Amino acid sequence: MLDFSLVTQFFPFLLEASWLTLELTVLSTILGLILGLIAALMKISNSKPLMWLADFYLWVIRGTPVLVQILLMYFALPQFGIQLDAFVASVLALGINAGAYIAEIYRGGILSVPKGQVEAAESLGMTYPTIMRRVVLPQALRVSFPALGNQAISMLKDSSMASVITLPELMMTSQRFAATNYAFFEFYIVAAGLYLLMTTILSFFLNKMERRMSQSER
């Protein structure tokens, strides 16, 4: 028989774990946005070594599971004298993973900007960094924003994989209480509800931001 009264006893701990999940998502997304922008700029550069380095990064990260990357970050790096706690290892692994996908999103947005605008900026004497900062990237961001929002939502759900290195985020906390109380359905269904709530709220704010950007473009 189902007994959700067990969940209510531990619900404050689940909320605390949800907050940790949000922190992990935000920091990983920020790192992914930074790495993705760097990789995208490297891919469209005229420097062959930079292009090759960006291609290698995307090839390795997109071709291996994020779960393996988390395990390598937490368990393998200590063999080289680099000891990271579970939270830092999770942020780095998830952020590096997201950066490889965000790079392609950025690149698509950058390439969507008409070349005529770049040529016009060059005729005005703007330098390449100025053109990217004032002409290309603002437009690329507007084009890329829906895909970046989807990536942020995916990041929130992928954060559950940090449970494999015992980070006490929502999934790990739910697993622990479910196993202790033999109430797997109750705890897992509540965990699913909390994930659904967080993704719904995140989607609401992202859609609101997207509408504002569309209005400002007009």
From TrEMBL:
Gene3D superfamilies: MetI-like (1.10.3720.10). The chain crosses the membrane at residues 20-44, 56-77, 182-206. It is found in: Cell membrane. Its main location: membrane. GO terms for biological process: amino acid transport. Keywords: Amino-acid transport, Cell membrane, Membrane, Transmembrane, Transmembrane helix, Transport. GO terms for cellular component: ATP-binding cassette (ABC) transporter complex. GO terms for molecular function: transmembrane transporter activity. Residues 18-206 form the ABC transmembrane type-1 domain. It comes from Brevibacillus fluminis. This is Amino acid ABC transporter permease. It is a multi-pass membrane protein. InterPro entries: AA_ABC_transptr_permease_3TM, ArtM/GltK/GlnP/TcyL/YhdX-like, MetI-like, MetI-like_sf. Belongs to the binding-protein-dependent transport system permease family. The keyword Signal does not apply. It comes from the Bacteria.
